[in-house]
Amino acid sequence: MSSFTNYDDVSNSYDVYRRAGNMDLLISMTTHLTGKCLEEMSVLDAGCGTGNYALGLLDAGLGRITMMDGSDGMLTTARMKTANYQGIAEYRLARLPQLPFPDESFDVVMFNQVLHHLSDSSKPDGRYPVVRETLAETIRVLKKGGVIVIDTCSHDQVRHGYWFNDVLGITEQYMSLYPPLPLLRQVLSNGGCTTIQAYVQPDVVLMDYAMYSDVEGSLQASWRKADSCFSLSSQVQIKSFCQKIIKMKNENTLKAFFEECEQERLTFGQSTTIFARK
Ligand SMILES: C[S@@+](CC[C@H](N)C(=O)[O-])C[C@H]1O[C@@H](n2cnc3c(N)ncnc32)[C@H](O)[C@@H]1O
Question: Got the DSSP string for 72-129?
Fold first, then answer.
């Protein structure tokens, strides 16, 4: 389970506001790096959530997928959405860093916005032991020539890619949960992976864009379920956030504020997708 977001609670509303935005990149890079077409590929979606990425791959013709998550609620939703598809190997309720699968089981293992949720990932020594253990497990369950996919945020992206993090005053705390990209590269490389490549698509937004751009909407608690930075925040931080939004609303500056933030997002993007080959 996430160390700070109750995903059983979030599972009822997650699909209202979250999107699987980088499917084209995911499909083109995994087929390219594995040398396999989707139909003959076996994928593990680790931290699959409600199955949005799995669904995208199945719709594109994926041969076989295993969906794993630590939240029963998220996995139940994923199951309901994909029940009628061929190619579902298994739904597995399990908690990272463990990957309860035999060695060399999968062509692709993907983590989409999962690593920052792993418990004690922000130990002061900056070593991210649970992330390291998770990646070691991943390399174990990947076939030779298989590909690991990690969609995560760089520290610059946490700072510049989301209009709400600074207003909330959560940037530094949230950033510390994300393992730095150089550390991920180093761990993958030390684990024997090659062809480590990272891509940023600045036009891709993790939330539904109409919702993301509705700054005033963030005054609603239901809107604030759309990003985990709000579940990490204290009541004091949330109260102060709402006061700042109301002030901008009263001063009629919300639109200008959002447009200024958008310039930064379009420079840095919101997430980075790393691909590495075993
Ligand atoms: C931000 S959601 C991403 C869901 C999905 N990958 C997506 O992009 O739509 C993070 C997911 O990671 C799962 N998760 C967090 N910590 C976990 C852990 N230790 N073991 C397994 N799943 C975990 C959560 O339950 C949640 O479904």
Answer: HHHHHHHHHHHTT-TTEEEEEE--TT---S-TT-EEEEEEES-GGGSTTTT-TT---H
- The residue whose CB lies within 8 Å of the most ligand 1 atoms, and thus the one to mutate among 5, 6, 7, 162, is 7
Per-domain residue ranges of the chain: 7-277
Q: Does ligand 1 come within 6 angstroms of the Cβ of 74?
A: yes
Please indicate, yes or no, whether the overall pTM of this predicted structure exceeds 0.90.
yes
Q: How far apart are the CA of 247 and the centre of ligand 1, in A? A: 34
Q: Provide the residue-wise pLDDT of the chain in tens; the chain has 278 residues.
A: 677 889 998 899 999 999 998 899 999 999 999 999 999 999 999 999 999 999 999 999 999 999 999 999 999 999 999 999 999 999 999 999 999 999 999 999 999 999 999 965 555 567 899 999 999 999 999 999 999 999 999 999 999 999 999 999 999 999 999 999 999 999 999 999 999 999 999 999 999 999 999 999 999 999 999 999 999 999 999 999 999 999 999 999 999 999 999 999 999 999 999 999 99
CATH class name, domain 7-277: alpha beta
Residue 201 in 3-state DSSP? Answer: coil
Report whether residue 75 contacts ligand 1, using a CB cutoff of 6 Å.
no
Question: How many angstroms does the Cα of residue 229 sit away from the middle of ligand 1?
Answer: 14
Q: Is the CB of 118 under 6 A from ligand 1?
A: yes
How many angstroms separate the CA atoms of 131 and 120, rounded? 9
Ligand 1: residue whose CA is nearest its atom 12: 47
> What's the rounded Cα separation, in Å, for the pair 136 and 69?
18
